[in-house]
From TrEMBL:
UniProt domain Cyclic nucleotide-binding: residue ranges: 14-82
Entry GO terms, CC: cytosol
Listed name of the protein: Crp/Fnr family transcriptional regulator
Transcription regulation keyword on record: yes
Top-rank lineage group of the source organism: Bacteria
Domain HTH crp-type: 148-221
GO molecular function: DNA binding; DNA-binding transcription factor activity
Alphabetic keyword roster: Activator, DNA-binding, Transcription, Transcription regulation
């Protein structure tokens, strides 16, 4: 659906670097769409035809091997663009994207956005900066997943989630990302039963609790990295 509403472009870092004239041109190619929870936006190998800007909700990015092993996982929150990987060079998506919750997204044809961004130095630096953050995130994830001790993997994964999605609220920390024990088990490469056992231990110790699909951390120092 063609966007008819007024958009506050300053909320999207990437779009904020365009001039008013450039944004006016882009509005001719800007579309709005809603997806229900678990709906796919695109799959690995699909033509890389759209760049998305998440207005509401959360999106999950993932890549799974033919054996079902999770090779890549990341999450996108509101007011962020995705995917960054492949800018200016890739013709196909390298991973899949699905709605972790009900979502609202804007999208622009890839070719149009890349043509506009190619000559904007601030946007080039924004892309490089964001890709560096993604690389750092996945370096930490790789170190976590290569740990043989399952409890360490679970606790280090929670530490990463606190760092990337956590905020302090009345002396406790809340991971602002919809999460279940099943989702955490996929993230850590551990079984649902094992993750449940570890969670119950942490809960009994007063370290955290899972409430309304949000982890609430009562002992932040326990997860110090």
């Amino acid at each position: 659906m063609k966007v008819k509403e007024t958009i506050d472009y300053s909320q999207f870092e990437f779009l904020s670097y365009f001039t008013r004239a450039e944004l006016f041109d882009l509005e001719n190619f800007l579309f709005l769409r809603t997806y229900k929870k678990n709906q796919l936006l695109f799959m690995e190998g699909d033509p890389r035809e759209r760049i998305y800007f998440l207005k509401e909700g959360f999106v999950k990015l993932e890549k799974v091997s033919s054996e079902g092993t999770m090779l890549y996982v990341d999450y996108v929150r509101a007011y962020n663009m995705f995917p960054y990987g492949g800018f200016f060079k890739d013709n196909f998506y390298h991973f899949s994207a699905s709605a972790l919750t009900d979502i609202v997204v804007y999208y622009i044809p890839t070719r149009i956005l890349e043509e506009k961004a190619m000559y904007n130095t601030k946007q080039i630096f924004a892309i490089i900066h964001h890709l560096s953050k993604i690389l750092e995130y996945h370096e930490n994830r790789l170190q976590t997943l290569t740990t043989s001790n399952v409890r360490d993997r679970v606790e280090q994964s929670l530490a990463c989630l606190i760092k990337d999605f956590g905020y302090k609220d009345n002396g406790r920390w809340i991971i602002d990302l919809p999460m279940t024990l099943t989702e955490l088990s996929k993230l850590t490469g551990a079984s649902r039963e094992t993750v449940s056992h570890i969670y119950n231990d942490l809960k009994k110790s007063g370290i955290l609790i899972l409430e309304d699909r949000r982890f609430i951390i009562y002992d932040r120092d326990y997860f110090a990295m």
